[in-house]
Amino acid sequence: MRNIVVLTGAGISAESGIDTFRDGGGLWERHRVEDVATPEAFARDPELVQRFYDMRRAAVQTKQPNAAHHALARLEAEWRGELLIVTQNVDDLHERAGASRVLHMHGTHLNAWCTACDARHRWTGTLIDKPPCPDCGEASLRPDVVWFGEMPYEMERIYAALRGADLFVAIGTSGAVYPAAGFVQDASQLGARTLELNLARSQGSHWFDESRQGPATQLVPQWVEEMLAG
Ligand code: BJW
């Protein structure tokens, strides 16, 4: 066992105080996906969408990585083979815990993307006030996140890593959103063992060789201990 691909979802950041999407009280109970997370929604009502992301961008900067993020960073530092973290999360908690091999397939809150000149800039403030792009000066900045109907980022690197993976681990994701929800079947067909760590059984649990239930802050450090103990 050398090469590990870890897929993380909103559940890994839940105990840091960041809302998930589909759990009780999650974001999609309070906001309609069609209103805030599609390109059509942004074209129709940019202020509503910018307000939704400005609020979450501000909130995420007040949160801290938890024991699960720290355990994955420790695994990255101490594992003798390859470890790649593919996250669907738009927070930066993996990086703040010390992980460096992280792909953000659904983008990041802390970037703004200029739709006029295609530049991306680190962005910690608001966008609702239509600030100019630092490169081209146009007021065409949007959150650098992947909405429904848009192509997720880094797909070539992700599939290359899945092809070489001996172990695929999904942590805190409902398995409701593709293409990430299909990675377990891809990895399995390509010969990897598959493990799910989640608070409860997910939509995709039956695809995994093994599924463990519990909070990420307990399950992930336990699993990392097991891996490093050999
Ligand atoms: C804990 C826990 C604790 C809680 N400890 N666990 C029909 C069939 C198949 C596909 C489609 C279809 N119709 C349309 C599609 C495609 C569509 C899609 O999948 N739709 C589905 C709704 C069916 N997908 C797309 O459009 C994607 N693009 C695309 O497919 O392009 C074409 C393509 C083709 C082929 C290859 C490649 C590309 C784009 C999807 C973009 C998703 N964007 C969002 C918003 C990002 C910005 C933002 O944050 O606002 O991404 S939606 C949202 O869902 C966000 C998340 O990353 C994503 C996944 O959610 P996640 O992380 O799983 O969270 P939850 O809330 O669902 O689950 C939390 C889990 O944690 C639960 O299981 C809990 O139990 C657990 N948990 N506390 C451990 N303490």
Mean pLDDT: 97
Strand order, largest beta sheet? 3-2-1-7-8-9
Reading the helices and strands in chain order gives EHHHHHHEHEEEEHEHEEH
The number of helices is 10
How would you describe what is shown here?
The protein is α/β, with parallel strands linked by helices and 230 residues long. The protein contains ten helices and nine strands. The protein has a six-stranded parallel sheet, sandwiched between helices. A three-stranded antiparallel sheet has the order 5-4-6. Strand 4 and strand 5 (120-122) form a beta hairpin. Helix 6 (67-78) runs parallel beside helix 10 (216-229). The radius of gyration is 18 Å and the shape is globular. The mean pLDDT is 97. Bound molecules: ligand BJW. Residues 9-11, 14-15, 20-23, 26, 37, 88, 90, 106, 145-152, 155, 172-174, 176-179, 198-200, 202, 215-216 line the site of ligand BJW.
What would you say about this model in short?
34% of the residues lie in helices and 19% in strands. The protein has 230 residues and is of the alpha/beta class. The protein has a 6-stranded parallel beta sheet with strand order 3-2-1-7-8-9, with helices on both faces. Strands 5-4-6 form a 3-stranded antiparallel beta sheet.
